[in-house]
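User: My instructor asked us to take a sequence, write out its structure as C-alpha cells, and then describe one feature of it. I'm not sure where to start. Here is the sequence I was given:
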Amino acid sequence: MAQQHGIIVLFDVENALKTRSLDGNTYWFDNMKFIGSTGVGTEQLETIVPGTYFLDGSQATEQVLNWLPAALGAIPPTVPRNYLAEQERADDRRTLEELAALSGEGGVSEADLKRLQQRVGKRAGRQSGRGLTAAKLLDVTGKTTSGADAYNYPAPVITDITGPAVTEKIIYPAQYGSPDMVYDGWYWAATVDTSRPGVYSYTVHVQLHELVERNDELVWESVDLTCTSSLKIISDPKRNGFTGAGLGVLPLPPVPAAG
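Assistant: Let's start with the prediction itself. The C-alpha cells for your sequence are:
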C-alpha cells in the first residue's frame, strides 16, 4: 500500500496580498520529519520520500503526496462547513431580538440604530458574478464585521502544481474529489516515482482572495501567486516508524504470568 505524505501549507494571506508575493509568507509542514524532512515550519521545506526498495531488495510501491492549504490567523478549515452561515443567522437573530426590545421600550434612537447596523456587518459579493458565494464578513473570532476590522480570509485555493518534479515525471499531480468537506471536497495529490533518488523542486500555484470596494460594494477579487518547495527521494528501504526496523508486526508487550 502506498504511503501517504501530508504537506500543509500555511499562508500569511494578509501580508501576501500587500506585497503581492508569497516569498516569506508561507510556512510548510509535513509528516516525515522523523525520517529526515528539513525546513519544517519554514518556506524551505524539503520533504523526504523514502521507499525505493523493501528490505529484501524488491521494488517498493509508489508514494503519495497530499497538499492541504490554510490561512494564517483565519477561522480553522476544520470547523463545520455550515459555520459561516450559522454565525450569520445567529447574529441576525440577536440583532432582531435587541431591535424588538428597544422598540418596546419606546422606540429606537439614531445612536442605537447605527450601532445595530454596524453589528449586522457587511456582505461581500463576488468578482464579476463568479467565484466565492456572497456571504457576510466575519472577523477571526467568528463575529460579523463591517470590514474595517481584521476579517476572516477565505481559504487559499491550489490551482495547479508544476515545475521540474512534474516535467521530469517524478510526480504526477492531479486534483481529486473527496467526501471530506473540509476543503470543499477537493484536494491536490500526486504519486511519486521512488525509483529515481534525488532532490526535485516543484511550484504550487495558489489563488488568494482580496476584499476590495467596487461601486460601494465589497467584492472578493482573486489574486494568483506561486510558491516553491522540493522533495528528496532517498534509497533507504521502507521501515516501521515505531520500531525503526523493516515492515512487519509491531512488538507485543510481555504477557504477565498468571498469579
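For the description part of your assignment, you could build on this observation: Residues 64 and 209 are 29 Å apart (CA to CA). Try explaining in your own words what that tells you about the chain.
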